[in-house]
Design a protein that fits this description.
Layout: H1 4-30, H2 32-54, H3 62-88, H4 91-98, H5 101-113, H6 119-135, H7 139-146, H8 158-182, H9 185-202, H10 219-241, H11 247-253, H12 256-267, H13 274-292
């Protein structure tokens, strides 16, 4: 068995999980929108610098370009929501929800590519949904709400995390269809360039300050750009080496949640409730099982 695609998926999980964890510092300094935009800018410049060494198979096929455009748009929206969710809520709560994006990818494959789900896969999907419901609410908040002491039952940031997972699921589905044709580098350059261009062009309309300033080129931004670049190359090369089959690569990539939660537990001493711990376990295991069982 070729384990390299799985190892590259694990490398993606480590890189993106690390980038996600450090994003909060930058988001609270310059805002999540600027964090995403300037990270994309630096990341795209890094990828362009690597292109002579790695080689780029650019495609002018309208279908490929349209797929990349739609996937990159989903990445831009999902990434901005992701950073906003991390800014508002404990990592241990929103990270497992965000990293449920592979479920969306599989559902798209079933709907658009005609793949079928076995009973085991449906069971894994149900387990993931139950896990998401558990990790996204606090039992203590529900009790307070029922007693009239607190109004909201859903943890702040959970809605943004859930929507982010949907957009990211579309993005990685797009990569799965394009990367086997174009190679690993071109889609990475396209999506990163799309993100920083969209960020700068839409910034004034969305009343976001995207003017270049020294604090927007901080060490945190450069670290995030580096880890993001290594992460996207890892998963793209994993897709190429797996022959275009997503399951093994995406299965291990979803373990990014474990890295984020691990960092938060050790460094920030976050302590989710017991039911949320169960939800985290069910969500991660459900995603892994669903994709491992995919053909």
């Amino acid at each position: 068995m070729n384990i390299l695609p799985g190892l590259l998926g694990l490398a993606f999980a480590f890189c993106i999980g690390t980038s996600d964890f450090v994003s909060r510092r930058s988001s609270r300094s310059i805002g999540p929108y600027s964090t995403w935009t300037f990270t994309a800018l630096i990341g795209s410049l890094g990828l362009l610098a690597l292109s002579p060494l790695l080689g780029v198979r650019a495609s002018l096929d309208p279908r490929i370009l349209l797929t990349l455009f739609l996937a990159s748009g989903s990445h831009f929206l999902g990434g901005n929501l992701l950073y906003r969710a991390y800014q508002h809520t404990d990592f241990s709560i929103v990270a497992p929800l965000i990293y449920c994006y592979p479920v969306v990818t599989v559902l798209l494959a079933v709907t658009l590519l005609g793949q079928t789900l076995s009973i085991a896969q449906i069971t894994a999907l149900a387990g993931t949904i139950v896990g998401v419901l558990l990790l996204s609410t606090r039992i203590s908040d529900i009790r307070q709400s029922m007693s009239g002491k607190k109004l909201g039952m859903v943890i702040p940031g959970v809605r943004m995390a859930a929507i982010s997972a949907v957009f990211l699921g579309f993005y990685y589905f797009g990569l799965g269809t394009v990367v086997p044709v174009t190679g690993a580098l071109f889609p990475a350059i396209f999506s990163r360039t799309f993100s920083f261009l969209a960020g700068f062009l839409l910034g004034p309309l969305l009343k976001q300050d995207v003017r270049p300033e020294r604090k927007k080129f901080s060490r945190t931004i450069f670290l995030m750009a580096l880890m993001g670049t290594l992460g996207i190359l890892s998963i793209n090369f994993g897709i190429v080496l797996s022959g275009g089959s997503l399951p093994v690569v995406i299965t291990t990539s979803s373990l990014g949640a474990a890295f984020v939660v691990g960092y938060a537990t050790v460094l920030l001493h976050e302590r989710p409730e017991k039911t949320q711990v169960l939800g985290i376990i069910l969500a991660i295991v459900g995603v892994a099982a669903l994709l491992y069982l995919s053909p």
